[in-house]
Amino acid sequence: MGKRIGLEVSLAVAEAVKLAKVDVVSAYPITPQTHIVEELSIYVANGDLDAEFIPVESEHSAMSAALGASAAGARVYTATASQGLALMHEILFIVSGMRMPVVMTVANRALSAPISIWNDHGDIMAERDIGWLQIFSENGQEALDLTLCAFKIAEDKRVLLPMIVNLDGFTLSHVIEPVIIPDHAEVDAFLPPYKPVLKLDTDKPVTLGPVGVPEMYTEARKQIEQAVLAAKPVVKEVLDGFGKAFDRRYKLVEQNGKVGAKTLFVTMGSLGETCMTAVDELLAEGADVGQTRIRLWRPFPEEEFVAACAGAQRLVVIDRVLAPGAVCAPVASELKSLFYGRTGAPEIVSVIAGLGGRDVTVRDFKEMYRQAVSGKLSGNSLMWGVESHAS
Question: What is the DSSP letter of 28?
């Protein structure tokens, strides 16, 4: 049955990793993910988790150690944020290219400069094309549950790819929320022991990650793309299985508000819950509005998203990252590409909000809606709130 307690979300994630019975945790502290690996180090030191905890000298080393441990056949976990994720950049491609099912939490945080320890999605959007599966949580329960699902998805023989579970830094990571922690027996029934398919073995020597000469490099990278795309039905299958096992159900794309609404907000991460409140208040005022929330980011759930937006005339897409010089921000750009050439495609309104932890309130969402339906909110990459703060 599990137990329901009030717990800091970072500690809930650590609890999920412990329940997953990982073999290796490689870690370097960086705000705001430090509480996760700090708690895991306590579990290991106290004997509550039978695992190797590897404290390293940088995030680059953390991911290198995770890669090596996974190649040796271990179930591996790490966590990072912001500049730490950026420092891992070189190794992230190698982990996916070698098909190592490492699971990582990214406590999303703004990138410097200027230095910011607060939340936006700049870190993960800079790493969106690394060949890792990527999913977003909206609250503490989801962060715990999706972490358990991530191990099952990544290690599935049909997938064998690393996976990132995103949670908003501070907005989630340091907030105490009520969460249900499953029993060990429940998790053991859902998540079987890891049986590696690809591993280094002195009895049966193999080479992992060799040089890719021009005659085969393109084909190798194409296989990674195919593997990422092929993972979508497995993600759906695991999420459905989790729902049956624990009675908490998650979809690749979530919806709320009016079905078939002409105006839809599109959100990812914890900001979605603030938007939900705004949508509820707008509906009470008679507005024609709904919300589509992206849970799975890579691979992008194309069919599911299009179906969720049926009947919409405009999508107000909230990006929490600036893409200097681009036509529009990453999520809006993805959706423009998705709907290009489709009959009856909705207008894509790109709004950049919440950079560096700046608050986006219920009032902000309601004002976005009013400006969108009046035609005042249109075009590419409007930076919400800049004018008012500048004045």
Answer: -
Residue ranges covered by each domain of the chain: 3-246, 253-390
Q: Does residue 229 register a pLDDT over 50?
A: yes
pTM of the model: 0.97
Residue pLDDT, tens place only, 168-200: 999 999 999 999 999 999 999 999 999 999 899
Contact 288, 316 (CB under 8 A): no
Q: Which CATH architecture has domain 3-246?
A: 3-Layer(aba) Sandwich (3.40)
Strand, coil or helix: 210: coil
Class of domain 253-390: alpha beta
Q: How far is CA 162 from the centre of its chain?
A: 12
Distance between alpha carbon 318 and the CA centroid of its chain, in Å?
15
Phi, psi of 115 (to 5 degrees): -60, 130
Structure tokens at 239: 């999420």
Rounded Cα gap, residues 279 and 289, in angstroms: 7
CB 266, CB 350: distance < 8 Å: no
DSSP state of 312: -
Question: Worst-scoring range by mean pLDDT, 112-121, 266-275, 314-323, 377-386?
Answer: 377-386
What is d(CA 133, CA 96) in angstroms, rounded to the nearest whole number?
9
